[in-house]
Structure formats: C-alpha cells, structure tokens
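To the wet lab folks,

You asked to see what we're planning to order before we commit. Fair enough. Below is the target structure as tokens, and below that is the sequence we designed to fit it. If anything looks off to you, flag it before the synthesis order goes out.
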C-alpha cells in the first residue's frame, strides 16, 4: 500500500508540475512538452484544448483539456498554483528506484484530475481506475472509485465510491519463497 501511495505521489509530481512557458502550438514547460489543437494564454493561465497532452521523460497526461494556473512566487517568477486535466484523462508514468534499479508503471484514467499547489493533494474524479505494475506485486494493483485523493506529503490515499458502486483496492504482493 505504501508503494502505491509513493507511486501515485511521484506520478503527480512528475506529470503535472509546471514551471516556465514558451509560445507555439507546443509549449515547453519545465522540461515537459504541452501539445494541443489550440491554446489560450494570458499572464496567469494556459489552457490547452483538444487532444491535450503534457509529457516528460517519465510521465504523460492526456485529456480533452489541460489548464495550468500560474502565480508570482517569492522571487517574482511564475510558479504553478494549480493544474487541471478534464475529459477522458489518461495518465501514464514510469518510476525507477535508483537503489534497486527496478521500475514500476502507473496507469490511471478519470474524468478529471486536479493538483493544487499548497494543498498537498491530487484529486482524480469520475470513474477513476489506477493500475500499478511493480515487481513487488504478484499482479498489477488496482484502485477504483468515483474519487481518489492522494495526499502527497503524508503518503496517504483516500478512495471514495458511490452508493451504486463501492470503492475498491486490489493489491497482491509477491510471496517470499
């Protein structure tokens, strides 16, 4: 369970953190690339619409729309305040443990994803399914529900279902032989 939370936390840090912006139909954002059919931008907001994707070496986020909210930080530079992905959200990330050189893969789908800087949480909502493939697991771990909240600093996860469909976590660790 702790591995799942760590993976989800890394996924968000890698997949949705944004620092600086450059114009075109392709935005370079802190070592990441933002692509879309169209962009709307002003001083504090970048909206990528239509087949929007945010990719880096380690992760990608795809959605119908990605919004990146910026604010002036302590050194008067623009920093991320909030990032949202809405409509057919698909997240894919790979994390390699530097000590063991093993890697794990996280794939998630949802109707929306929101990261608010300072709130220390990532929220996936709407028919959420998260799959984690890890060598320490017998089979990919699955987390599903209507809402999944990952508390990044606390390494805590909350999964909520609805009255019609319960939340579910399915994790099978590899047994020691």
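Sequence we intend to order:
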């Amino acid at each position: 369970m702790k591995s799942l939370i760590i993976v989800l936390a890394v996924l968000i840090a890698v997949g949705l953190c944004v620092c600086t912006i450059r114009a075109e139909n392709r935005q370079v954002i802190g070592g990441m690339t933002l692509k879309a059919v169209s962009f709307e931008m002003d001083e504090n907001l970048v909206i990528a619409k239509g087949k929007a994707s945010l990719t880096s070496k380690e992760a990608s986020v795809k959605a119908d729309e990605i919004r990146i909210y910026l604010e002036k930080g302590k050194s008067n530079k623009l920093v991320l305040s909030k990032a949202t992905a809405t409509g057919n959200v698909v997240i894919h990330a790979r994390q390699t443990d530097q000590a063991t050189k093993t890697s794990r893969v996280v794939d998630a789908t949802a109707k929306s994803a929101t990261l608010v800087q300072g709130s220390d949480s990532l929220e996936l909502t709407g028919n959420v399914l998260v799959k984690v493939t890890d060598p320490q697991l017998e089979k990919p771990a699955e987390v599903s529900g209507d809402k999944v909240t990952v508390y990044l600093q606390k390494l805590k996860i909350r999964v909520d279902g609805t009255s019609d469909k319960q939340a579910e976590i399915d994790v099978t660790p590899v047994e020691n032989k």
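Structural context that might help your review: The domain at 2-170 is CATH 2.60.450.10 (lipopolysaccharide transport protein A fold). The longest strand covers residues 78-96.

Thanks,
Computational group
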